[in-house]
Amino acid sequence: MDKVLEKKVIKWINQDVSKNDIKTLEKLLQAARKGDVEALAELKEAFSGNVQFGTAGLRGVMKPGESHLNKSTISRAAYGLADFCNSRVSNPRIVIGYDARYHSSEFAKDSAAIFAAKGLEVYLMKKAWPTPVLAFACNNLNCDAAVMVTASHNPKEYNGYKVYLGGRIVSELGQGAQIVEPTDKEISNLINAAPPANKIELADSGWLYLGKEIVEKYLFSIKKLNTTQIFDTLDQKIKDKVKIVTTGMHGVGGEVQIEALQKEGFYNLVKVKEQAEPDPAFPSVPFPNPEEKGTMDLALDYGRRAKADLILANDPDADRLGVAIFDPYINDYRVLMGDETAQLFIEYFSKIASGSDAFGSSIVSSRFMNTFCKTKSIPYMQTLTGHKWLARVPGAIFVYEEAIGFNCNPQAIADKDGPTAGAVLANICALYKAQGKKLYDILDEHAKTFGLYKQSQVSIRLDSSAKIVGLVEYIRKNPPKSFDSSEVDSFFDMSKHDFGVLSTNCLVMCTADNTRILVRPSGTEPKVKFYIEIIMPVKKNASQAEIKSVRQEADKKLKRLNEEIEHLAN
Q: Is 350 a catalytic residue?
């Protein structure tokens, strides 16, 4: 066994604060010394460098060692964050939330004890609640920072440490949003300079618990948001007819989503019982992400049986919202792409927007919002990927990104927010029901007015960051000449462009027939994503049969493009 690695492991064991992790590492070390190849490989992986802190905070597999998430790495992260806050303001105030994943409450309580020992004023959520509740609390309590212990939609082996800044640290646009560059590097340096975990002081007390009252304040902000001239005209009898299927996807959003709907007057609700209670094992889904194919199958079955008007699925920390509705063109329920769901919101928010209200979407989202805003003379801003950037859109009334992340309440919450989006969408559904229409009619009306915007995505999973970089670099140096027999007439490398304040590793290719392909490494998973969008012309007075024909042609075109990109990537 390599002596440098052996010394590194022994040093970590002597500084670790988890008895279970120490036992695991000691067994691996003994096995590796005897020539166990698998044990040696596991140790090499666990000690391949400090777990990286970036603009998404920490995100990683929960295992022992410096390269993973565990009590020791979380303790050092909390210590470094405390040093950062103390360096910026006096007596900083911080709020901590957590989801129902393995070790989330433990990591949150350890953080509270470290923050208190470092002199911070600390609020700790009393139980596991959604990320949007934590993001709301950050601004509502005028906190200088906030931490959410969650890995959002990642598999069960993962956890994470999302960091928000607000209060006196960030007082301009983006107050209460997740950190951005270069702040992440400042905090990362302080984490790396933190003492060993067993040398970090933990206070026995000194924090205040936040109970259900913070959830009630959050729910009140949703109710206040939905008090508009349009929604106030809705009769309760109409709302009673709106049947909604909900699922919390084994996460912490199920109860809060239902409460948000009920406060809006929607009681005709059907819970997906198998996924209603928090369960860190996520037993009914391979990936707890409503975006993943097949993840909403159980909810779709419930929807079919109930003949639901709307199916809502929160991811485990409830910052995202998956939506399914009945599609008349396939005579079945279908999960909408994030860009399609956004069209439902865009139509509504355009009706209540004042002259100063603005829309925003990310660089990988559909071009539809920009086109729509131009025709309506609504201010629009495109940002880098992530709600940490969308939170900085001046005067925003609605912002979104295609990965089913919607913020319908930017003035109160600087992050994507599933339960709020679900409550707003229920009202939009009731509004159309009162007019004898369905939600799908919005998509058809938009297709006839603006053309059919249709999206697809190809994700290429790779087993190393080097391969991810290599694939993007190959395309950068060897851009395709055409896609689906249409010539590429523009190639844009965003890494060479100052996008407001930063460049980003994203390639954009557009063809003569208005197809757009974006290539970008994922920020949270080991894969390269290809975002595909086509725009198909639709006649202004197209019949339903004609629209169906266009949609079928669009699906065929997207299938060809998907196959072409998969071949390119391999």
A: no
